[in-house]
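Page 37, continued from 36.
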């Protein structure tokens, strides 16, 4: 399988605050091929960060930002995305599902149009709220049907947490999901688990993603029971055993 594996830096956020460059180096040495940023760039200028990533052999798997950042062509999100030769800008609006999802869909469409005008692909990251039904239709599916420029970063844990099947959903979103957040679920309390250490059908998820044209697998663990870098290592080792990384 040729899809590269990245990691969402939110997983190791405390390590990044203590030693940003050292944390990136450690992730590269583990075998991660890219990193997805989330608001924080280690206080490095875009050009300097681009040079450092290149020295480590890392690529930019994506840039998670606020809706306001993505709607603003002059924001730092686009400055970093350009410098690091990224392709994807991403946001999540889960808190808006219950408030006013139809209006939020319009905001997503605008964000996708702005991103496209700047040369990037807009992807939407789901949580469990997007698995809510509106007149028998999953909220996330409404986004799928609403605007062709909106692409998706499907999160396997949150799909399962919301009562849906990740494999089925990845297949349904084939061609519209360039990024897959690989996140596993503990068999006992449904808490976050290292990839390959939980109940999710990892081989099925990987196969469906490859068939659907995914361009990045991105490990994320919102809360780690072990030291975050240890959890990151466990996840990439699980994926290596399945032919990734």
């Amino acid at each position: 399988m040729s899809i590269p594996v990245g990691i969402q830096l939110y997983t190791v956020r405390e390590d990044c605050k203590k030693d940003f460059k050292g944390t990136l180096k450690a992730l590269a040495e583990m075998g991660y091929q890219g990193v997805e940023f989330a608001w924080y760039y280690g206080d490095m200028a875009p050009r300097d960060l681009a040079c450092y990533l290149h020295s480590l052999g890392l690529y930019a798997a994506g840039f998670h930002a606020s809706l306001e950042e993505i709607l603003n062509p002059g924001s730092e999100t686009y400055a970093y995305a350009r410098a690091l030769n990224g392709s994807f800008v991403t946001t999540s609006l889960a808190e808006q599902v219950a408030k006013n999802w139809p209006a939020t869909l319009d905001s997503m469409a605008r964000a996708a149009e702005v991103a496209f005008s700047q040369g990037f692909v807009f992807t939407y990251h789901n949580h469990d709220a997007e698995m809510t039904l509106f007149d028998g239709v999953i909220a996330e599916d409404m986004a799928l049907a609403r605007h062709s420029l909106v692409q998706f970063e499907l999160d396997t844990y949150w799909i399962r947490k919301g009562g849906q099947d990740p494999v089925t959903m990845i297949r349904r979103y084939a061609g519209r999901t360039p990024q897959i957040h690989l996140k596993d679920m503990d068999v006992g309390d449904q808490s976050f688990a290292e990839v390959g250490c939980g109940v999710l059908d990892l081989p099925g998820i990987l196969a469906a993603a490859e068939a659907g044209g995914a361009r990045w697998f991105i490990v994320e663990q919102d809360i780690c029971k072990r030291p975050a870098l240890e959890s990151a290592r466990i996840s990439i080792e699980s994926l290596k055993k399945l032919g990734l990384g």
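The longest helix spans residues 97-117. Flag for discussion at group meeting. The mean pLDDT is 97.
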